[in-house]
Automatic annotation (TrEMBL):
Segments forming a coiled coil: none
Keywords: Hydrolase
CDD domains: PaaI_thioesterase (cd03443)
Record bears the keyword Hydrolase: yes
Thioesterase domain segment(s): 51-128
Stored InterPro entries: HotDog_dom_sf (IPR029069), PAAI_dom (IPR003736), Thioestr_dom (IPR006683)
GO function terms (MF aspect): 1,4-dihydroxy-2-naphthoyl-CoA thioesterase activity
A UniProt-annotated Pfam family: 4HBT
Keyword Iron in annotation: no
Name of the protein in question: Esterase
GO CC terms: cytosol
Length: 140
């Protein structure tokens, strides 16, 4: 299944994210596949909470970033996807290294999209699962 409705690449997504929360947190886009996007975030002084673990909010930022970017590239040209709802289950704390997220579609509809995002530590262990619902807005 070819999901993307617009030309997409790691370079294009990275350029789009310059000087945003994405770049300030050190999020790096890694791969665009036929039906997924992946990126990673460092676990460092910018992203840890006071108890030394990756901040749960940063996990949600990574998940929202991946789902939002994916949803917008999966929209017909001229349409825009905006977030309606996100949830996250934090399953394992991460104190160092990188957390890598992969977003895959659960539902691509005319007016909504749902994306599943899995975040894993450097050992490949699941640290967080998130589900993002997006509204698809038609051109004005």
């Amino acid at each position: 299944m070819h999901l993307w409705q617009q030309p997409i690449s790691v370079a294009a997504i990275t350029a789009l994210s310059a000087n945003t929360a994405v770049s300030h947190l050190g999020i790096e886009f890694l791969e665009v596949g036929e039906d997924f996007i992946s990126a990673r975030v460092p676990v460092d002084a910018r992203t840890r909470q006071p108890f030394g673990l990756l901040h749960g909010g940063v996990s949600v930022v990574l998940a929202e970033t991946l789902g939002s970017v994916a949803a917008n590239y999966a929209c017909p040209v001229g349409h825009q996807a905006v977030g309606l709802d996100i949830n996250a289950n934090h399953l394992r704390g991460v104190s160092s290294g990188w957390v890598t997220g992969t977003a895959r579609p659960v539902h691509i509809g005319r007016s909504t999209q749902v994306w599943q995002v899995e975040l894993r530590n450097d050992a490949g262990e699941l640290s967080c699962v998130s589900r993002l619902t997006m509204a698809v807005l038609a051109p004005k």
